[in-house]
Specification:
single chain; mainly alpha; Rna Polymerase Sigma Factor, Chain: A; Arc Repressor Mutant, subunit A; 2 domains; 8 helices; about 0% strand
């Protein structure tokens, strides 16, 4: 066991102790959890939203959810893993909402951006391919989908995914590999039927 492992275990033990005291009624200790973890949550917010104001709003939203749900933390995993899962889900939901809003606004304004060689048929084919990929993604096991989302769509490294999900790096690599294989098979099946 390395010195870093010892400090990490102490941090986990400290988090668990702080949480038990908060649940027992010492609500003001929540600021200690925020102080210990807000930089990493803010960093995740920056990686998703690319600006400090949105990352700050995101960080506040995450810690509000954590505070409200703290009694549901069972202590079976590290607190940081539980926290980052909440942060990841919050970020994905916000990004999805933002995309849907932008899409609706674009449709309402009648703005369709066409490339020089774009035709209505190509637009429809691209939309169908995108929808097929999204449908195939929904069929992946959750653990695969999370790893693929973080790796491909949010450009996270294996180490960052490990910090968010708690999965070991080799497991993440395996999940990404298997998910790609499953997606390829599903999408080839669709292409063969058309």
């Amino acid at each position: 066991m390395s010195i870093g492992d010892t400090f990490e275990q102490e941090d986990d033990a400290d988090d668990h102790l702080i949480i038990s005291q908060i649940i027992a009624g010492q609500k003001d200790l929540f600021r200690l959890l925020v102080r210990r973890h807000e930089r990493k949550v803010f960093g995740m917010g920056l990686s998703f939203f690319r600006n400090r104001e949105d990352a700050s709003d995101f960080t506040q939203e995450v810690f509000l959810k954590v505070y409200r749900g703290l009694s549901g933390f069972e202590g079976k995993s590290r607190f940081s893993t539980w926290l980052y899962k909440i942060a990841y889900n919050t970020a994905v939901n916000r990004v999805t909402r933002n995309r849907e809003y932008q899409s609706l606004a674009s449709e309402e304004e009648g703005e369709t951006l066409l490339r020089d060689n774009e035709t209505p048929e190509r637009i429809l084919v691209r939309q169908a391919a995108k929808q097929a990929l999204l449908d195939a993604m929904k069929e992946l096991p959750e653990r695969y989908r999370v790893c693929v989302d973080l790796f491909f769509f949010f450009d996270r490294s294996y180490q960052e995914i490990e910090a968010i999900t708690g999965y070991p790096v080799n497991t993440i690599k395996s999940h990404v590999f298997r998910a790609k294989k499953m997606l390829r098979e599903k999408l080839e099946g669709i292409a063969d039927t058309e």
